[in-house]
Design a protein that fits this description.
It is built from six helices and no strands. It has 151 residues and is mainly alpha-helical. It has one domain. 24% of the residues are buried. It comes from [Mycobacterium] crassicus. Keywords: Membrane, Transmembrane, Transmembrane helix. This is DoxX family membrane protein.
Length: 151
């Protein structure tokens, strides 16, 4: 027996039985939570790791010099701006995934360009390429889920 919420649409537990919706839901959750967490951490620098070091390092070590040169302020200030953009992108995925997923994909494309021009972070760029492809998949799934709901 299927359950419905207060407006007559299927309950989330029933919708998650559909593999298409489940994949959409998982990727939407990932691309909501991860950008928000990474964005917030731009203000606290808990995640960057310094190999062999005792402190956590700073995010500006991932900023290519040419990008730092075109952004206003210093590297830390640029990371604050980047953090705000990441938070907004995560919220956009939460409220409008058909648009937000493309914004995150474009953002990841920018990060990849940055990392490829910053010597030594090719492994991170490759990982981010996988995330970019996943964001594109989310955009396509969001469209499919939206189309199913409309028809």
């Amino acid at each position: 027996m299927s359950t419905t919420d207060h407006v007559g649409s299927p309950a989330l537990s029933d919708r998650l039985k559909d593999p298409l919706f489940e994949a959409f839901f998982l990727l939407r959750t990932l691309f909501t939570v991860a950008p928000i967490l990474f964005g917030v951490d731009k203000f606290f620098n808990l995640l960057p790791h310094v190999p062999g070091g005792t402190d956590s390092g700073h995010w500006d070590k991932y900023l290519a010099g040419w990008i730092d040169g075109i952004l206003p302020g210093n590297g830390d200030q640029a990371m604050y701006l980047i953090g705000v953009i990441e938070i907004v992108a995560g919220v956009l995925v939460a409220v409008a995934p058909r648009i937000g997923a493309w914004v995150v994909a474009a953002w990841l494309g920018g990060i990849i360009v940055d990392l490829l021009t910053l010597s030594g972070y090719y492994d991170v760029a490759l990982r981010d390429f996988g995330l970019l492809v996943s964001a594109v998949v989310l955009a396509r799934l969001a469209q499919a889920v939206h189309t199913r709901q409309v028809t």
